[in-house]
Amino acid sequence: MDLPRAVGGSAAGGRGRYGWETRRLGAGVTMPRTRDVGPIVLLGPPGAGKGTQSKRLMERYGIPQISTGDLLRDNVQRGTELGQAAKAIMAQGGLVPDKLVCDMVRERLNQPDCRRGYILDGFPRTAAQAGWLDALLEEKFFDNPRPTQAMPIVVRLDVDYNQLLLRITGRRSCPSCGRIYNVHFQPPKVDGLCDVDGTALVARDDDRLEVIKPRLEAYERQTRPVADYYERTRRLVSIDGDQPMDKVTERLFSIIEDNQA
Ligand code: AMP
């Protein structure tokens, strides 16, 4: 079986409390790897750490990260019809029309690697997208009633505004392996180069100060109501995203695993 890489700890494995396969991570922590995890929705403003935490969730549970920002950037780079429609909007920090984003997400969620679950990073971002996702999950549930498909685990990462600015302006990534760095908090060993493969790191086009403001405004105006919606329906868990990254990860794992128990 193709196993996701362990997040530290020894590689000894076994059968878990619920009968699914596990890998021991040390200190009595075990990782379910074959069980359904279901949809996980990560909410939070740009720079809250959704991308970083998604990668850790991916490693632990062996489910894909679906970042609508990454999918859109890929479309822009390939010059697809969707990419051409999205390019100027993204460059100005606005939101791409719901219909385009929802069609793209539907297609991605139909891929076989999403069967056990997936992490939605940057989606839903508007009330219409949240309603669309609820309807889709319900439809999937009645199509194939797997209990985990109907109810996403929704987690919001809350981060102080000034901290967000430092995180966004300092953000660099490796175009080759996707690893994320921050020149203020988590610089690479050699300035400007990826620790893993030595590729020159790049900053995102929309991480410039003049684009950050409209992006944060779009979050406040359009995405905050999404969190309110999940809160009203008692589906939202908030995490203090100002904590050290490992603490945030620990808390995320425990929310997800408590939900599975
Ligand atoms: P992100 O990488 O999540 O910060 O997204 C980068 C940009 O892609 C955003 O500023 C939007 O222009 C666009 N985008 C990403 N996700 C969505 C979404 N769910 N709805 C609309 N636009 C999106």
Q: What is this structure, in a nutshell?
A:
The protein is α/β, with parallel strands linked by helices and 261 residues long. Helices cover 44% and strands 16% of the residues. The relative contact order is 0.15.
Tell me what you see in this structure.
The protein is 44% helix and 16% strand. It has 261 residues and is an alpha/beta fold. It has a domain of 158 residues: Rossmann fold (3-Layer(aba) Sandwich). The strands form three sheets. Strands 5-6-4-7-10 form a five-stranded parallel β-sheet, sandwiched between helices. The longest helix is centred in the last third of the chain and has 24 residues. It starts with 12 loop residues before the first strand and ends with a helix. The N terminus is likely disordered. The chain binds adenosine monophosphate. The site of adenosine monophosphate has 17 residues, from α2 and α3. Adenosine monophosphate binds next to α2 and α3.
Gyration radius, rounded: 18 Å
Strand content: 15-25%
Mean pLDDT score: 85
Record the strand order, biggest sheet.
5-6-4-7-10
Q: How many strand segments?
A: 10
Q: What ligands can be seen in this structure?
A: adenosine monophosphate
CATH superfamily label of the domain at 37-160 and 223-256: P-loop containing nucleotide triphosphate hydrolases
Topology:
Elements lengths: L12 E3 L5 E4 L5 E3 L5 E6 L6 H12 L3 E3 H11 L2 H11 L6 H12 L7 E5 L5 H17 L3 H4 L2 E6 L2 H9 L1 E3 L6 E3 L26 H24 L3 E5 L4 H16 L1
Parallel strand pairs: 4-6, 4-7, 5-6, 7-10
Antiparallel strand pairs: 1-2, 2-3, 8-9
Helix pairs in contact: 2-3, 4-5
Bound molecules: adenosine monophosphate.
